[in-house]
Prior knowledge:
- The chain is an alpha/beta fold.
- It has two domains: about 1-165, 3-Layer(aba) Sandwich (Rossmann fold), CATH 3.40.50.620; about 180-305, Elongation Factor Tu (Ef-tu), domain 3 (Beta Barrel).
- It contains eleven helices and twelve strands.
- The chain has helices at about 30-45, 60, 75-85, 95-100, 105-115, 135-145, 155-160, 165-175, 175-185, 200-205, 290-305; strands spanning about 1-5, 15-20, 45-55, 90-95, 115-120, 150, 190-195, 210-215, 225-230, 235-245, 255-260, 270-280.
- The model has no long low-confidence stretch (mean pLDDT about 90).
Amino acid sequence: MNIYHSLDSFEKLEYGVVTSGTFDGVHLGHKKILSRLREISEQSGGETVVLTFWPHPRTVVSDDSQSLQLLSTIDEKIELFSQLGIQHLAIVPFTRAFSELSSHEFIQQILVERIGTKKLVIGYDHRFGRNREGSFEFLQENCSSYGFEVEEIPREDIENMAISSSRIRKSLITGHISEANELLGRAYSLSGTVVKGKQLGRTIGFPTANLHLHESYKLIPMNGVYIINATHNDLTFKGMLNIGVRPTVDGTMRTIEAHLFDFNQEIYGEDLKLELLHYLRPEQKFDNLDMLVQQINIDKQNSQHYFL
């Protein structure tokens, strides 16, 4: 997959089969659009292009940008688009000036003159241009003058799947990880660097990897205990994860701590990817450490049984 962090380096295609959007999570609804993109390119001999925007447009045009929580980082999106067989990924720097482009300017300057769009595929509620003024109806009325065709994924196709990024976010922050994974079509993941914590886990027989996320805007699911797969140096380990403030030891800072089964390496400063498979229980405060250890042992047994 060719990746462009600026349209200045994009060489205009003879037959671009294009879609555009933020694609947060690259979930099953998005995959339907991308599947249609590949299908058209194979039939036409064209090349697939995903046009996405970074930073997320809401961080530029919205007053609530500080509260923005995303399902995927830009690096995760790049990996997912590559896995889905996209040929060209253009990551457009989203600035205030870019947000002021009219729908006509966006189509003419970006889709036509820069990309070489011959077929545009969009979701049913896709909007573009200044104040989201552009619509499928606008494209239908004007696409012939721009020299390309437009296809909209029908509303019922997406609604029948009942998938949206906002629904997935809600599932994650309410502890419904299995539902979120089903809508994503894969396990929700958290990636970061292992940092030193208070090292309490090793004193009670459960050493943990304390994860510092690479990006602060990445959505962290509801506090609690999860069953996970962890990937380190391309090797995968089973384990369990606690997200929370550790109330039994009077913790105040929210942490992400993974205990990996059959793993005893020191990996401070190294990268770790956690895939959240199942939600076991909410975080709770125990009267003493012995009760906490007793519950962690139960959690481990339940986790190991999950993998059988």
